[in-house]
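Before a colleague's protein record goes any further, I have to sign it off. Alongside the sequence sits a line of tokens, each denoting a local backbone shape. I want your independent view on whether this chain really folds as the tokens say. Where you disagree with what is written, explain briefly why. This is what I was given:
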Amino acid sequence: MYGGDEVSAIVIDLGSHTCKAGYAGEDAPKAVFPSVVGSVDQMEVDDPGTPDKNSGSGQETKAKEKRKLYVGSQALGYRRDSMEVLPTIKDGVVTDWDMVESIWDHALRDCLLVDPKEHPMLLAEPSFNSQQQREKAAELMFEKYNVPALFLAKNAVLTSFASGRATSLVVDSGGGSTTIAPVHDGYVLQKAVASSPIGGELLTDCLIKSLESKGVNIKPRYAFKRKEIRPGEFQTVDIDFPQTTESYRLYSQRIIASDIKECVCRAPDTPYDETSYSNIPMTPYELPDGQTIEIGADRFKTPDVLFNPSLIQTIPGMESYADIASSARGLPQMVIESINKCDVDIRRELYSSILLSGGTASMQQLKERLEKDLLEESPQAARVKVLASGNATERRFSVWIGGSILASLGSFQQMWFSKTEYEEHGAGYVQRKCP
């Protein structure tokens, strides 16, 4: 037992779009912030006069220390010259561990204000995480943060716990990708995990390009200021910052576009086609710079990409995603494929408890549409039931909530991978302790 009830564990769910962190036993995470990191290279400070003594790898590490990382909504909201916005996780794989550390630091030290030495950590991980990645995470947690105990839990299992089920099919649609994982008795059935690169960010990009093709240009917040000409009357003045990087401009545009997506988009009841949706009533949306735009068919077309990825090719400016459009499969097909890879005995149970989780899954009408498509395509004997928490917050944070429930259970306390075990057996032991 590690400290019993006095010390609460910390649960961290680092997703491809946002990082969620908080105390086990609570019903929502305390800290939620973007999992991208702003990076400014400070190479210029190098004194050119110094002779290059240690060339090669030494020079690279020197260069690495020279970049300054900015984490959190506030730090990223402030525009800096030549700040690149870099993703920490791409296709479920960590791209840069230094950035992961900066995110954990921000979550633990700046947001939760805790000393990691005093709290066991429960980390959520993708269902298809590789052994190498798991060992690296364990090593960092024990060596750098000196945590007393650690547990790595699969996203899908935690979502299952959050809804109080031991067996379910978890459809987790997040920012970077959509993963479908069957969970049986609290374990992920690895051979049947399916994933597709279509997630919230891709839908946001589709929306930006669709609007651009109709002449609507989303101005990032830093690119204008409002000036009062007469009392109560404002004029928007554009400001030009030539030093802004392309990645920061896109990041700022995506924030606005994803808000548009959350406010007005909804999954269409039937597969999208241009003719039936061409004369649909428009929905107004006011952009931060004061202009009001009208959004019509795009409200339905963008979400339908989840069901029919080939729609990406019909959006001007999305040509670079042609390979995704041709290779990715729609949600219903992926669900059925995943269930068919499972044992015959549990297929009925999986069909009747399909759980939706993730930020993208909280889109309006998504549950109803998925249920309808599955009813048409699944075997007659299957009783299809798609479950989703009525509360959008719970859907977005279901992985974190599952972790919070798990780490606060009394019966879980002997499952922790402790520091002494780590010192005795090394990082590889994580495979045995956290199946």
Notes: The longest strand covers residues 178-184. The chain has 17 helices and 21 strands. The first helix runs from residue 57 to 65. Confidence is low (pLDDT under 50) at residues 45-63.
